[in-house]
Design a protein that fits this description.
- By secondary structure, this protein is α/β, with parallel strands linked by helices.
- It is 33% helix and 21% strand.
- The chain has a single domain, classed as Glutaredoxin (3-Layer(aba) Sandwich).
- The protein contains five helices and six strands, in the order ββαβααβαβαβ.
- α2 crosses α4.
- It is globular.
Length: 132
């Protein structure tokens, strides 16, 4: 499945570093940013999530909720949050989705057909309050 501008973003339920979420309920009437990373503990991904955490106040001012995703398990995500906070001098307050079975990655077309099935392609989706 390939999402295009104007398409309705698929809803999903997922385990995250902040418990189970229903995507639409999490967003409410906010804008959303859903972005993926190939793996936990990689240097580039760690700095990107750290920078996103440091911009949390700017996202809040603009009524934007952020979610990150990788196909790594929840226990690894929880360890990674501690590493991100320590090395990037931040506080990750947004959920990181544990998408081990790749349900969300497949819903959003995040896995490139010529890449490993366990790596999400770096993707970012900006979702409006209307879920488009």
């Amino acid at each position: 499945m390939s999402l295009r501008l104007g398409d309705i973003a698929p809803n999903f339920k997922a385990q995250t570093t902040q418990g189970e979420i229903d995507f639409y309920n999490y967003l409410g009437d906010s804008w959303g940013i859903l972005f993926s990373h190939p793996a936990d503990f990689t240097p580039v991904c760690t700095t990107e999530l750290g920078k996103t955490a440091l911009l949390n106040g700017e996202f809040e001012k603009r009524n934007v909720k952020v979610l990150a995703l990788s196909v790594d398990p929840l226990d690894k995500h929880n360890q990674w949050v501690g590493d991100i906070n320590e090395t990037q001098h931040c506080n990750v307050t947004f959920p990181i989705i544990a998408d081990e079975d790749r349900t969300v990655a497949n819903l959003y077309g995040m896995i490139h057909p010529n890449a490993s099935e366990t790596f999400t392609v770096r993707s970012l989706f900006v979702i409006g309050p209307d879920k488009k």
